[in-house]
Amino acid sequence: MENIILKKIRNKMVNDSKTEGKLGTTIKLKRKERNKTLQKLSDIVGVSVSYISKVENNLITPNLTTIKGVLETLEINEKAFESSLVMDKWYLKTIKDILAIKNYQKQLFSYLNERNDFQAKLINFALKTNKGAHQSVSEEISLLMYSVDQMTNLEFVIFLLSLIRYHINDEDYLNAQKIFIEIKSVYLTNSYLSHWHAKLKFELALMQADLHVLQEAKDNYLKYLFLHNKLTKIKAVRTEYISALAYFYKPNDFYLIDEKLYQRSKRISLVLNEKFNDFKKLPLSDDLALLLYYDYQEDDNNVIKLLPKVKFLNTIFETALLDYFTIKYDDEADYCNFLKEKIFSCEAITQHYYGLCFFANKLKEILLKEFKYKEVNLINELVAKRKFNL
């Protein structure tokens, strides 16, 4: 399905500057939804296949009397369509609600209850994916894909940004990134779309290997959060960014910034980069860095004692580290198989460049002791490939 949507995206021509309700797009979507071919619909309502096809593709303005049977058969509310030809305001409310700039939930759901056309399907899809729904929207994606060619600029971007969110919810960051790179700045016709785009870019930047990309994404996203005075979100973004520096930064880089604010990340960076002598010069603290240090030193007793005291942040990398310590220090768990599953599965951590590096290095240590050089080379190839895929 991803090849199809990427092809549609690349072939999409953006001509509309204003979004108007399109009856043809709604007819096509409703017909596909009911599994009716053009010929079957033509036979039912007595209108030619050619005429219906031209209406569906918005090539002609239909005579509502002529297609009345089509509207009735597909249960399309003609009055609802006529009463809301201009859709920009509803799409804008949808975007503001998604970005938590203003709560339009009541208005939007009231609007959706009155309509069952293409525009309503798109708004519903955007709201559901961005509120965390996943399994319940796959059918809607298929239906909306039929209408990609007929979407206007604004509809197209809303669909793509929501589709990216769908893949992120599914921990499919690679396909999310493939779609993301297709969105050019020309599509971002207002500041709210740019804000939404910046939010997704920051989330994807956390998964890749380039610190400059992450810094740029963070700064751009914070710009929009400051604009709307989203103080809680600003704090959360900064916390996630600083925690990410533990693996993006080399230890010496931390001397250039406020050490107190970045102390936790600096400590972890020292251990991950195996600067153990420098780490031991720092004050002792029962934290993740010390836990990692004990692990590198193969000090099992201290790892087991310290593990219950350590606080792990709710990030992809640190959540995976919690799994790592839990499994490795469980005598009944298959540690080697766990590492293989982490590396070769479709989990989010395998698409997180530095997370993948951590688990890959741990597995290579085991494989090298067993002289399994082919498997080590396979892992090296996977890591190299991942570096350029995000």
Describe the structure.
The chain has 390 residues and is mainly alpha-helical. Among the domains are: 204 residues, no CATH class; 57 residues, no CATH class. The chain is built from 23 helices and no strands. Helix 11 runs antiparallel to helix 12 and helix 18 packs antiparallel against helix 19. The longest helix is centred in the middle third of the chain and has 18 residues. The radius of gyration is 26 Å and the shape is elongated. About 2% of the residues have low confidence.
Question: Termini separation (Å)?
Answer: 20 Å
Which structural category fits the helices and strands? mainly alpha
Question: How many helices in DSSP terms?
Answer: 23
Strand content: under 5%
Order of helices and strands: HHHHHHHHHHHHHHHHHHHHHHH
Q: Count all strands and give the number.
A: 0
Uncertain stretches: 13-18
* Rg, alpha carbons: 26 Å
Q: So what's the overall shape?
A: elongated
Mean pLDDT score, rounded? 88
